Amino acid sequence: MLTTPFREVQKDFLPGKLLLGKNKVAQIALGKREEDEYKRNLHLLSKHLEGDCGLLFTDKPPEEVLKYFSSAKSKAYARGGAVATSTVVLNAGEQALAQFAGSMEPQFRALGLPTRLVDEKIMLEHDVELAKIGEQLTVENAKILRLLGYKLGDFWIQIIAGWDKSGAYKNYI
């Protein structure tokens, strides 16, 4: 999961808490079934804990939380397997990797770039397409894009369900 955007959410919802962790542990804490739930209807919430998800505990009204997350979207570094949102091509020569020290050349070569060191400058031997719109990124290309500062991914949080102290449960999807 992405640390910086989640820290922003945590900061915006203080003194509330945003918890990200093991889904199975959270399910057990909330209760998987009605007979072992901590509070009334929490077992309904625990059914949604699968995949990349978390729990937000806040005193803010549901309308305010939903409004916040409907507009809280940002660009993020893409990971391997993500679909590229734009095309990125590195041109041959020293310009594409000019901001990096020569000591980085073996790392770029290990990531699959055709590089060589000339006068302590990293040279790209031929043009390389790192990303193409609509195609999946390899893990290696995602690492290179991150080193170069390209944010081809999107970050957003979707509210799936809510629960309040009175035991009211609401499904938002």
Q: Which characteristics define this entry?
A:
single chain, alpha+beta, two-stranded antiparallel ribbon
Radius of gyration: 22 Å
Oligomer: single chain
User: How many runs of DSSP E, i.e. beta strands?
Assistant: 10
Global outline: elongated
| End-to-end C-alpha gap | 22 Å
- Low-confidence blocks of residues: none
Q: How many helices in DSSP terms?
A: 6
Instruction: Give helix % range.
Output: 25-40%
Strand content: 15-25%
Trace the largest sheet across and list its strands: 1-2
Question: Structural class, from secondary structure content?
Answer: alpha+beta
Q: List SSEs in N-to-C order.
A: HEHHEHEEHEEEHEEE
Strand count, sense and barrel status of the largest sheet are:
2 strands, antiparallel
Average pLDDT, all residues: 91
Describe the structure.
With 173 residues, the protein is α+β, with helices and mostly antiparallel strands. Helices cover 28% and strands 20% of the residues. The chain is built from six helices and ten strands, in the order αβααβαββαβββαβββ. The chain has helices at residues 3-12, 23-30, 42-46, 62-71, 105-110, 139-148, and strands at residues 17-19, 55-57, 73-76, 88-90, 115-118, 121-124, 128-131, 153-156, 161-163, 169-171. The strands form five sheets. The chain has a two-stranded antiparallel sheet. β5 (115-118) and β6 (121-124) form a beta hairpin. The longest helix has 10 residues, at 3-12. It is elongated, with a radius of gyration of 22 Å. The two termini are 22 Å apart. The model has no long low-confidence stretch (mean pLDDT 91).
